[in-house]
């Protein structure tokens, strides 16, 4: 009987100790992976999902029969899928490094209709610039925390793609400005389709 209560006490102690450690059962793989980086990655996941939501909203707008720009719909749908993939890439990274994903609410876009394709492209460019700025902040935080793995991950998996996305949107905006609304917008839409 005494042996049983000693064994019970030891098991109870182990349970209490493991509960006190929180849900970070993978602390042994969280080397050089600070809690501020984990928090910033969670924020970036939200940023990526917010951008996805924005692009989905734009794609649905341009897909309306009354708007009739299927090329822009396709372009924006592809952008939405990229943002979703990037969010999932960050989720997988957090899991791999022993962090915990804390999904936050997706913020709806500030508007659901656009004056023109140019208006939508300029809105998308602003969103991409904001995402890039946040990625630079995350990269700098990782560098300050001496986390070369996170620095490399952000640089190789995200920043080059961001620079390319911004360049592509700037080129689209320049072409839309030259083409003008109406027929020029329709011709560009055909090229995107």
TrEMBL record:
EC assignment: 1.16.3.1
Family annotation (CDD domains): Euk_Ferritin
Gene Ontology molecular-function annotations: ferric iron binding; ferrous iron binding; ferroxidase activity
SUPFAM superfamilies: Ferritin-like
Signal peptide: 1-20
GO CC annotation, single: cytoplasm
Pfam families: Ferritin
Limits of the Ferritin-like diiron domain: 31-180
Enzyme superclass (EC): oxidoreductase
UniProt KW keywords: Iron, Iron storage, Metal-binding, Oxidoreductase, Signal
Gene Ontology biological process terms, A to Z: intracellular iron ion homeostasis; iron ion transport
List of residues binding Fe cation: 48, 83, 128, 162
UniProt xrefs under Gene3D superfamilies: 1.20.1260.10
Entry superkingdom: Eukaryota
Reaction catalysis annotation: 4 Fe(2+) + O2 + 4 H(+) = 4 Fe(3+) + 2 H2O
Family in the record: Belongs to the ferritin family.
Summary of the function given for this chain in its UniProt record: Stores iron in a soluble, non-toxic, readily available form. Important for iron homeostasis. Iron is taken up in the ferrous form and deposited as ferric hydroxides after oxidation.
Name of the molecule in the record: Ferritin
Species in which this protein is naturally found: Macrostomum lignano
